[in-house]
Design brief:
Order of helices and strands: EEHEEHEHH
Shape: elongated
Largest sheet: 5 strands, mixed
Distance between the termini: 85 Å
Strand order of the largest sheet: 2-1-5-3-4
CATH architecture: Roll
Helix content: 25-40%
Strand content: 25-35%
Number of domains: 1
Radius of gyration: 25 Å
Number of helices: 4
Structural class: alpha+beta
Amino acid sequence: MEFPGFDPNTKLAAVYYTGGKQPHLFRIHNDVTLSRLKDQLDQINCQLNHRDTRRVVCVEYRCLLSNSVSSLRFSRMKLTNDDDVRTIFYVFGQYSTRGSIELDASLVRSAEQILKNLNRPRNYEEITALLEGPDDDISLGDP
């Protein structure tokens, strides 16, 4: 049975943005690069929060680990290159055949965006104009 729109070369992934509580589900290609993964996560964040101008700067994989007494915990693996991304699929394929690949994405504003949002005078004339205030005298008494 075929499912329309399903690509067998993808896995289900859940991303948590900067400490978020709710995961956002998406499909991730088996041969994705780290750069392309960050771009994909940026696009998802823009779709979820169209006014958010932050960019993904760090991605971590939540690798589920178990010990001999059946205790489960997550270990975080910071993705630094394409080999790390390939490792996700290897580990997930070997140990987690159900569920989703869980990722944490850290969002940060770009330096350009921060500078753009600052409201600061740019030259001496603008500063003195702000300090001097309006030319009209203001009277608080009756007119």
